[in-house]
Amino acid sequence: MTTEARRVIADLKELKARTGTERGAQRVAWGPVWRDARAWFRGKVAEIGLSVEQDAAGNLWVTLAGAASSATHERVIAFGSHLDCVPSGGWLDGCLGVVTGLEVLRQFAKAAERPPVTLKLVDWADEEGARFGRSLFGSAAAAGTLKLEDVRTLKDRQGALLVDALGENGIDLDRVLEAHESFKAMDLRAYLEVHIEQGPVLEAMGKGTGVVIGTFGVERHMIRFTGQAAHSGSTPIAMRRDAFLAAAETALACREIAKRHSKPGAGVVCTVGVVDVEPKFVTAIPGACNISLDQRALDPATLAQMHREAHEASERIARENDVEVAWTSLLRIEPRPFDPRLLELCEEAVREETGEATRLPSGPLHDASEMAAVVPTVMLFSSSARGLSHCKEEDTPEPHLEATIDAFLRLVRKTVAEVAKAT
Ligand SMILES: [Zn+2]
Predict the structure, then answer these.
(1) Does residue 116 surpass a pLDDT of 90?
(2) Residue 297 β-bridge partners
């Protein structure tokens, strides 16, 4: 293990001890423990002789200026992730990327010469959206995709407004999009992020590190089936209009659609996470049934096709069961494939470190999803033990963490060289 990776893991453990309890990490965005995590971060940055700036959306930026003697010193490579977490979350989600980025700056800051391009480490504000339900707050503001009217009235479970929580942290919602102006003013050439996988795929393949090819797009809908509630004893099976059975058949059909569209290296997923029948009596045939459907894929055409086929299946099944069906869209997110050239560099870095390079897509969204829309982006994953995340059991075997941290350092160096030589 390199001393760099050892220091990152030691820093992560220090942060865990400072901001966690026996129930897990407590760095929920905009609250006191999160602020304390950021105070810890500021201290670490000061030790390297650098300083932290907060943008209008609450993102923290640390800049290591490129050597002014270099013609490319104003080009920027940014990297980072988020210090915030879900309530009673894990010690690695988000922090791995920020603390590894700290080590990158430490290495470049102590080198005899400044890098030929400017390096920026970012700690995005409120990636998780754990308290107010709006994830990717800071990175969306920087990318210019955050809509103020969508968040102005957001409240937490206690009824507190996001606007007021922002105010407690010195952020004025009406000025949040100034973060987009300062972001655009940079000559940003690449965004790099290292994160834990938060799923079981790498572990199942026996791998510690993976090259992330992009983040899934999402089609999320509620589907309502309407039949006729009737007595469970008196109504013959053939004469029923059972909304639940139509919903259940549709759920199974959607699983078959996802299986059919899954190819090796290009898996897709779908989930029916909500099932709600009416009138909900043991002696009543369900007259109505709402189900949710969440479909995800990396390829936009595949996602659109999956959505179309699910629609058709629900209509066919509704007809067969003599019920009505209606769809309501909840959320639509574009797939975000990562930059092909950065993927090559990332693959080289992982191969040099581990002897091979596994590619996989990301099911969860990340700050990198926002960045991918506006700047060449790539991500690296470290395996997650038992695929667990967003809980205190979240962990990664240390040899896997070390290899991933070292691969990320290689990726940054390769990207610096690439951006410096670009014309
Ligand atoms: Zn995260």
Answers:
(1) yes
(2) 217
pTM score of the predicted model: 0.90
In DSSP notation, 291-313 reads EEEEEEESSHHHHHHHHHHHHHH
Which residues face 194 on adjacent strands?
A: 380
Distance 349 CA to ligand 1 centre (A): 22
Q: Is the pLDDT of residue 264 over 90?
A: no
**How far is it, in rounded angstroms, from Cα 380 to Cα 193?**
6
Ligand 1 centroid–CA 371 distance in Å is 14
Residue 109 has pLDDT above 80, yes or no: yes
Q: Domain-by-domain residue ranges, the chain? A: 3-215+341-421, 217-333
The Å distance, Cα 63 to ligand 1 centre, comes to: 22
Between the CA of 367 and the centroid of ligand 1 the distance, in Å, is: 8
Q: What percent of the chain has pLDDT over 70?
A: 100
CA of 95 to the centre of ligand 1 (A): 8
Report the separation in Å between the CA atom of 283 and the middle of ligand 1, taken as the mean of its atom positions: 45
CATH superfamily label, 3-215+341-421: Zn peptidases (3.40.630.10)
Domain covering 217-333, topology: Alpha-Beta Plaits (3.30.70)
